[in-house]
Amino acid sequence: MGEATTNAVVETVTNVNNAVNGVVWGVGGITLLLVAGIVMTCVNKGFQFSHFAHWIKKTIGAIFSDRHITKHTGKESKAISQFQSLCTAMAATIGTGNIVGVATAIMLGGPGAVFWMWIMALFGMMTNYSENVLGIYFRRKGKSGEWRGGAMYYLKDGLGGYRGFKHIGKILAIIFSVFCLLASFGIGNMSQVNSIAGNMQAAFNIPPYVTGIALVIIASVVILGGLKRVAGVAEKLVPVMAILYIIGALVVIFAHVSAVPAVFAAIFKGAFGVKAAGGGIIGYGIQKAITMGFKRGAFSNEAGLGSSVMVHSSSNVKEPVQQGMWGIFEVFADTIIVCTLTALVVLTSGCVDLNTGAMISTNEGAGLVGEAFGTVFGPFGGKFIAIAILLFAFSTVLGWSHYGTTAWQYLFGEKTQIIYKIVFVVMIYFGCTMSLQLAWDLSDTFNGLMMIPNLIGVLALCPLVAKITKNYVDRVIRGKNTEPMLSHFGEI
Q: Is 491 helix (H, G, I), strand (E, B) or coil?
């Protein structure tokens, strides 16, 4: 194939991908995510609001009071603890998007984008909740004894259980698995390690091939060891990286604490077009604020994509709603806490004109956040962000390795999973050393395409989620003597 033909093929693929990506992550796709969150909030009677104290007590609060939450399962068990499942899920969701993505949203949508990011997260909590409830309810044990759950299972057995939908459920389950498998190599692997390599070279002059070799070695030891090893590493890595980043961000925010009232004023004014992004036309400014805010909310916590439910379903928990509440907390921690802190760091540091929403800094993405940290930490600010991206991005790779493995096992069986894991680890090196913009764009599209079959399943099964939720509220919160709804197959 000649160079001209190759270029023409690449251009065609790029154009088609851009068109599909525009549909998936455009107004239609974002609206579908928001509508799903609103529907699941309504059918579950605003569980994330009305039972806020309860789910906080049963998730982050229980870590300090209930040893069962963090207790490791025995060697003979293939399940992981609730805390390990949370950490592994958050390892995949807390990534470069929490730093680079938030900065980009502010740059393109102004301070108002932060408000719409919050709105998407508040409703996304119930989408993630519903996914996890269905994941536990429809999960099955594989031949190895490890729990298998995810959108493919509640599509096949849940949606497929409706009269006349048996084949549709099976087809959608396969489509979801294919999209997940393809996305795992891009958004869950190469795009993440490419960010790591670029930042390591910029901050510490480490050649990409050196970063690639180091990451391949570390990833091989962890990923080839199976889910329990991945979960064990995530359990140690996620709390450390999150706490370090939160402390660093709070130091910057408190150093500019006098700007905080003006920042919140700019966020609310920008959200409703009082001041347009960049000082432009008000209508255009509010449109950009809403679009970028919703996108950041969707990208950062992945609620509605059906990804994190695959690891939540491997938990040793028996109660579907209990794991659902961990899903609520996952979105809360990822977007309401981490993304908000990034936004406040950028906005309080003087990189953005709070009156107009216009950018003052010429930096973008990680460079913008690094500049904001540099206002307090000096030259170490950029290095701090490079280290944060290293930890955030590599943890994402670990989490997505399990998602891809789950999809592979569903499509090709458990005995061949080692093939996927080897290919996944090898692709880490290429992700560090090659410029693969088309691959990044394609993976972004596949990541978004996972949303369509997943949300079809979630919305179709919303009466079941509401029934399971009511059963839990009646039994656990109101103390009624009701038979529990724990598993569709009777396996607990």
A: coil
The answer to whether 332 and 476 have CB atoms below 8 angstroms apart is: no
- The upper half-sphere exposure of residue 222, i.e. CA atoms within 13 Å in the direction of its Cβ, equals 26
Say whether pLDDT at 288 is over 60.
no
Better pLDDT: 86 or 431: 431
Give the chain's radius of gyration (CA, Å): 22
Asked whether the beta carbons of 244 and 237 are under 8 A apart, the reply is no
Q: Which helix (H) or strand (E) segment is 140 a member of?
A: strand 140-141
Work out the end-to-end distance of the chain between its first and last CA atoms, rounded to an integer number of angstroms. 55
Whether 73 contacts 340, CB under 8 Å: no
CA atoms within 13 Å, Cβ hemisphere of 64:
4
Taking residue 119's Cβ as centre, other Cβ atoms within 10 Å add up to 16
Average pLDDT value for the chain: 81
pLDDT by residue (tens digit) across 11-31? 655 555 555 555 555 556 678
Residue in this structure with the two tokens 């599509």, named with its chain if needed: 155
Q: In this structure, are residues 352 and 170 in contact, taking their beta carbons and an 8 Å threshold?
A: no
Given a cut of 70, whether residue 328 has pLDDT beyond it is yes
Contact 304, 132 (CB under 8 A): no
Q: Would you tell me the crossing angle of helices 208-223 and 227-255 to the nearest 10 degrees? A: 130
Phi, psi of 39 (to 5 degrees): -60, -45
Residues pairing with 352 in the sheet: 359
pTM: 0.86
How far CA 407 is from CA of 124, 228, 243, 298, in Å, comes to: 23, 17, 31, 21
Taking only the tens place, the pLDDT of each residue in 163-209 is 989 999 999 999 999 999 988 888 788 888 888 888 888 878 889 89
Farthest-apart Cα atoms in the chain, separation? 73
The packing angle between helices 208-223 and 417-433, to 10°, is: 160
Q: What percent of the chain has pLDDT over 90?
A: 31
